[in-house]
Automatic annotation (TrEMBL):
Boundaries of every Glycosyltransferase subfamily 4-like N-terminal domain copy: 15-201
InterPro entries in UniProt: Glyco_trans_1, Glyco_trans_4-like_N, Glycosyltransferase_grp1
Protein's organism: Neolewinella antarctica
SUPFAM superfamilies in alphabetical order: UDP-Glycosyltransferase/glycogen phosphorylase (SSF53756)
Record keywords, A-Z: Transferase
Residue ranges of domain Glycosyl transferase family in the record: 214-372
PANTHER family linked: SULFOQUINOVOSYL TRANSFERASE SQD2 (PTHR45947)
Superkingdom: Bacteria
Pfam family, one: Glyco_trans_4_4
One Gene Ontology MF term: transferase activity
Identification of the protein by name: Colanic acid biosynthesis glycosyl transferase WcaI
Amino acid sequence: MKLLIYGINYAPELTGIGKYTGEMAKHFAKQGHQVEVITAPPYYPQWKVKKGYANTWKKETIDDVTVLRCPLYVPRKINGVKRILHEVSFLLSSLWYWIPRYFLSYDAIICVSPPFHLGFMALPHKWFWGTTVINHIQDLQVDAARDLKIIESKWLLSVLERSEKWLLKRFTRVSTISKGMEAKLQEKFSDPLETIMFPNWVDSKMIYPVSKEDSMREEWGILPADKLVLYSGNLGKKQGLEVVLHIANNLRDRKGLHFIIVGEGVSKETLMELKESLDLTNVRFLPLQPLDRLSEMLASADVHLVLQKKAAADLVMPSKLTNILAVGGHALVTADAGTTLHDVVSENDLGTLVPAENQALLQDKIDAILTGDLDGNIAGATAFAADHLDKQAILSTFLTNISDVNNGQQQPDTPTIHQVTTAKVLSPSTEMDA
């Protein structure tokens, strides 16, 4: 097939949506498909164009994929208005590549959301050529902007919500990464929306169990008897990471206990200022690690924090959980009963659960994990990752779905993180940076 992927994030970004989109395009090209990508220069999660890239139009080839880069506005400090300007600047600059492509045929176009409004560029191709246009939703961006109060203008939110609904009804199909997000999408319409389940995955050749001895503990100066609580990923508003520093402050006299926060994001500066104000010596901030060392990094931890605020429930899914499961780590997950994340973790013994935004209980559970009292909570983690998060199976099935939509056939069931061995479907970027 001849495929066009349209998204603001792409390889060589190491985390979030760009990582998954890059792996998807590479897989499609390896299967012999002709793949083009319209995207921006890599800038996430540092919110700074990566060294070696210019913020301009550029054509390059990566892993047999034709990558067309477009300039965009990259703000240093993020708020609702600046994010809108950031995304609109990409939409407008991408016209440079879109205009000639309206005269070319494709078998399918995949728009990766967020930003949700990329469909405005892709839908004319559907109208002119009858092209299959799939909107793949990694985060429910408009819902998150409203519920997390990133945008508080009722008028602006109303415009965004109406625009999103208008677009969603006009795509050939809408795909998303979890049953909870799918349910949120269906709530927006009186008639069912045609959806495809397309979850995130783990590359078992890159992410796998590593012993503590072969991890990064020694490199980080952590003794064999010491304990490490790790958060790795996006440092955004939706995670509520201030709680980690307050817990570290409460446990500052605990000898041999370390808290390490790895990553970048809009909240990093605020978090580092809080660390300084509390004078915490048991907390360290480290940059993102290379992908080929991710297994070593994750294997270093005794506790892996998977945090998000109540308002983010079922709007975004913490993609970091898939990697934690693949290395057999103990994930401490904040999720309320009834959410997709809570159901998947609890029904499959993938980690320890705590209600969102409950600092006291979160601290208690950290203590319990460190003493080994909750080891049984991760009994199913490694096997579940092997059975349900296989990269090859998930991407191959999505390709089949695209082909079947083109041919007017019903899509096959997709192997997902939401299925267990009894075939019961459970009710997991990527993450929106905010």
